[in-house]
Amino acid sequence: MLLLAESPYFGGITSHLVTLAEGLGQQEGIVPVLACLSGRRPDRTLFERAAAHRVEIIEVPVHGRFDTGVMDRLRLLAERRRIDLVHTHNYRATLLAAAALRRLPLVVTCHGLVDSSVPFSVRAWQALELRCMRRARAVIACSEQVRRDLLARGLPGGKVHVVHNGVAGPDASAPVFDKLALRESLGIQGDKPVVLFVGRMVEGKGLDLLLQACAQRRGWRCVAVGDGPMRGAMEALARQQDLEVLFAGTQTNMTPWYLAADVVALPSRSEAFPMVLLEAAAHGCPVIATDVGGVAEIVEHGKTGLLLPCSTNPDSVSDLVDALDLLQDPQARADMGRNARARWEAEFTPGRMAATVAEIYRAAVPEFLSS
Questions:
Q1: N or C: at which end does the chain have fewer Cβ atoms within 10 angstroms?
Q2: Which residues sit opposite 320 in a β-bridge?
Q3: How far apart are alpha carbons 258 and 264 in whole angstroms?
Q4: Does residue 315 sit in helix, strand or coil?
Q5: Domain match, 360 and 277 both
Q6: Which residues pair with 245 in a beta bridge?
Q7: Do 133 and 247 belong to one domain?
Q8: For the chain, what percentages of helix, strand and coil (3-state, to nearest 5) are there?
Q9: Tens digit of each residue's pLDDT (9 = 90 or more) over 206-225
């Protein structure tokens, strides 16, 4: 079967695709083929991550916006690899697969729906993708919230299935590091508790709110992993606040950063089902996150972390400050971290995700894996 993605850029979908490909490869009778359309930017994180995990990935070249030859390249790939089912991620992959591989059963994963704040062109593309979803054998929603959004757009309930993303935990065979020594190796200075931000540096992720909160609570050390169009503005904001922040850029191996952190913060203005929170839980790290999208399906308030009200309200920074105050207590952090790890083991492992997706394939496409 073909796992087809539309862009190789840094973000949660990249780690999801590699993890899903690995997990499906362990399911009986399934041979996943991971492929990705060429991106319009130089970022090739998906290819790099796949190589690091020794997962084969095929690039499907796209030469410009009006390259109709990509359809032939997809058909040739499907023929050569004897593909009998296509599972797409995001609108460009879905639209091209629906057009070029019409004879093959289609399964679509929806990682979230856009709202009226995005450009009209993006909304138009997603409207076309929704039409393809109605023709698909099954649609996978990454959260209950996304499923509700799809049903509100007219998709039949029996076609839409919720499969929570799964992430791998830290390597159990890895040596145990002294936390202070680990921080020093990463360039994190001092002995203050560390609050970690991980993600694209765009307005919707709320890094600006976290920086303002840390400026009011200088007992915390802030570390930001990731990159994006607002990185320069965030660095400038940190300087304006006279706040010492480590901007670590994009990292291919996140385990040391999660192990070095005391808390992971994601004060997003919008989300679907953020992988960062799953990764934090897998590493036993409590979180502070805004209660948007499917976040409350990951974070149990007061037990595995703290949920904040929607960060579009004027009290967003004060809510973050209050959360940092509550997690200043090392025992509270330790208890929440253990609870988060236990919940990850029960609900968000790669094996659980892959097994559920495989069952959806079998139910939606009886001729596929009929044995």
A1: C
A2: none
A3: 8
A4: coil
A5: no
A6: 222
A7: no
A8: 45, 15, 40
A9: 999 999 999 999 999 999 99
